[in-house]
Amino acid sequence: MLTRFFAAPVFIAVIAIAMGTGIDALVKGVAPNAGLHHLLAWRFLFGGIIAFAVFKAKRRPAPKAEAIRFHTIRGLLQLFCAFTFFYALTQLRLAEATALGFTAALMVAPVARIVIGEKISPVAVAAALIGFLGVLLAVTGSGAGNDLADGKNRTLGLIALFSSTIGYAFVLVFLRMRATKEDATTIAMFTNVVPAIALLPITFGFFGFPVLASLPVFLALGAAGYSVWFLMTLAYAKAPAQQLAPIEYTALIWSAVLGLIFFDEWPGWQLWAGAVIIITSCMIVAFEGRFRTRRQAGLPASDIPE
């Protein structure tokens, strides 16, 4: 039973999101000094090295031309999302950026309907809307009592953030399209290698080599970034996109804790009230997916393999 729980797609997604929030906090802390261009390029380079090594070690078959074209487009879109979101992190509070970033989850179900024809569950839609209300409430208390530091541009940060969320909704649906055809190792490899190939010539050509002291941080970001996408690929291969999308809301809790510890960002009561609503919506979707499977299979929930 315990093994089944840890192998469940919802649990895998929660772990991946917690790690992703840790990456966001690290980016927010080091990007101003290390340089966003260096951070992105070297994060993807180290992630690509790790991902390619795992790909070769597992002796995965060489991808076909059609897969390479698909993953190149998806990788470039992933790079755009990473750049805009990382920039937003440098301009906004961590909890605020995380909360507003949840709008991507609200777009996943309609994007999945348009792109891959995935049916939208009314319960999933209702739960996502409930979660969005929780996000709205949480944003009002995301940084109560704190003003943004000098040099921050909130407007540009918000524009970058919402640009990232729109692209991220498509990235998640594209991930779902390939997760049922290819293994997580291959997808994670492309996710890191494509952005690295695109960024490194620009970085070396215009910005040179980074400070050596920053390389361990970039390595940590690369390893964590690879792990997040590997776990998310596993999760999306086992469950519909609309079932996992609201689980993204749990990042709000992690961002509030990390923002408080490392950046002295004190969330108001609204954030915690919103977090309760968000978690409730996640549970609704998770349990609804399980019981819907039970109805389709004609079996008791306890008889359905995880």
From TrEMBL:
Residues 11-139, 156-286 form the EamA domain. It is found in: Membrane. The chain crosses the membrane at residues 35-55, 75-92, 98-116, 123-144, 156-175, 187-209, 215-237, 244-263, 269-287. The keyword Lyase does not apply. Keywords: Membrane, Transmembrane, Transmembrane helix. SUPFAM superfamilies: Multidrug resistance efflux transporter EmrE (SSF103481). It is a multi-pass membrane protein. The keyword Zinc-finger does not apply. Belongs to the drug/metabolite transporter (DMT) superfamily. 10 TMS drug/metabolite exporter (DME) (TC 2.A.7.3) family. PANTHER family: ACYL-MALONYL CONDENSING ENZYME-RELATED, SOLUTE CARRIER FAMILY 35 MEMBER G1. This is DMT transporter permease. It comes from Henriciella pelagia.
